[in-house]
Write a structure and sequence with these properties.
Number of strands: 4
Structural class: alpha+beta
Largest sheet: 4 strands, antiparallel
Shape: extended
Number of helices: 2
Distance between the termini: 21 Å
CATH superfamily of the largest domain: ATP-grasp fold, B domain
Length: 104
């Protein structure tokens, strides 16, 4: 993974990636500085949530969750935001009729 800090960096990294493989796409993500990252782990049955845990990354957004320190319950989320996150998770699980564990 490379982080492009300028248009020149982006062009250089895309050219290098195309030399490695012309058949496989490149994933481009935009990182928000000073952003807070939230993880949700849940279990559903036929789209209905059975249990859910919302965790907050201690580090700023951009650190892979496998390398990050997470705390639950979230320490810096207000109640309204936490409820909105839970509602979004419920709606997605229902729309996709999720059965089993999943992460968002």
């Amino acid at each position: 993974m490379n982080v492009a800090h300028s248009d020149k960096d982006l062009e250089e990294y895309l050219n290098a990636a195309s030399e490695v493989s012309k058949e496989h796409p490149v994933v481009i993500s935009k990182f928000l500085t000073e952003a807070k990252e939230i993880d949700v782990d849940a279990v559903a049955a036929d789209g209905d949530i059975l249990c859910m845990a919302v965790s907050e990354h201690v580090e700023n957004a951009g650190v892979h969750s496998g390398d990050a320190t997470l705390v639950t319950p979230p320490q810096d989320l207000n109640a309204k935001t936490l409820e909105q996150i839970k509602e979004i998770v419920r709606r997605i699980a229902s729309a996709l009729c999720v059965s089993g564990p999943f992460n968002m």
